[in-house]
Amino acid sequence: xxxxxxxxxxxxxxxxxxxxxxxxxxxxxxxxxxxxxxxxxxxxxxxxxxxxxxxxxxxxxxxxxxxxxxxxxxxxxxxxxxxxxxxxxxxxxxxxxxxxxxxxxxxxxxxxxxxxxxxxxxxxxxxxxxxxxxxxxxxxxxxxxxxxxxxxxxx
Length: 155
Prior knowledge:
Distance between the termini: 32 Å
Largest sheet: 2 strands, antiparallel
Strand content: 5-15%
Shape: elongated
Structural class: mainly alpha
Low-confidence stretches: 1-7
Strand order of the largest sheet: 1-2
Oligomer: single chain
Number of helices: 6
Order of helices and strands: HHHHEEHH
Helix content: 55-70%
Radius of gyration: 20 Å
């Protein structure tokens, strides 16, 4: 569907250069990510807290140092993030079975529930936007684009 709203894109050139396409794609993906982050603002989690909670949920228990490396932050910053999550009951610490001087952080049941709610809010917003803005042919085009993006990401 086309409209005269600001930000709507014109028809793409027949054979865009890889550089032009990369720039356009990075821009729209960035805007999509910002929009998805804003849909779950009522969760009272910061973006970094959501990221750490998702990393722990998807990757399993981890130490503070491992999380700091994975999130590209200083260990002191990660301790603050984990402290906030722990204060909300979303993560818990336990002694590291391999090294009693360390602790391992894992997601609690409340953390899993909160993360599921955040992810559902994002998915619901996107599904509603797709249903409201795209016709069947456009949805098929987006499905094809998703398959191509998966291929790019997996290389």
